[in-house]
Amino acid sequence: ISISCLVNPPKPGDDSYEQYNKERTEELASLRRRAHMVTNAFNNLEGVTCNFTEGAMYSFPRIRLPPKAIEAAKKMGKAPDVLYCLRLLEATGISTVPGSGFGQEEGTFHLRTTILPREEVMNTFVSKFSDFHQKFIKEFS
């Protein structure tokens, strides 16, 4: 039944069409706002760039890590972006995926995160991520 509802949504004239269309429109607008919120936050951080998340539920910011962070990761036997993601998880509870798992270009560091948390908690995500990033960069500068 669920799959049938997904692939055959209400059509104009159906009793539930107006409600369906309202909810769908609101959710898509919310996803767009969340994408802007996350992309803008990343691009406002020192050493972080991110293309606008469009048509997807993931953001892939590029993070320029200080040489000391790269050295520390190598001493631990970890990829530098893995160190960053693990430290982010430990400090904030934010779970991300290191870009090294996606075949990133040699010498660059990325992570993947999602824009799916509800809009009302995205400010908390942005704040926690920003605070962590600033502390991480300061620690390894």
From TrEMBL:
GO biological process: photorespiration
Official protein name in the record: Aminotransferase class I/classII domain-containing protein
Cofactor: pyridoxal 5'-phosphate
PANTHER family membership: ALANINE AMINOTRANSFERASE (PTHR11751), GLUTAMATE--GLYOXYLATE AMINOTRANSFERASE 2 (PTHR11751:SF373)
Record's keyword annotation contains Cell membrane: no
Top-rank taxon, per record: Eukaryota
Molecular functions (GO terms): alanine-glyoxylate transaminase activity; glycine:2-oxoglutarate aminotransferase activity; L-alanine:2-oxoglutarate aminotransferase activity
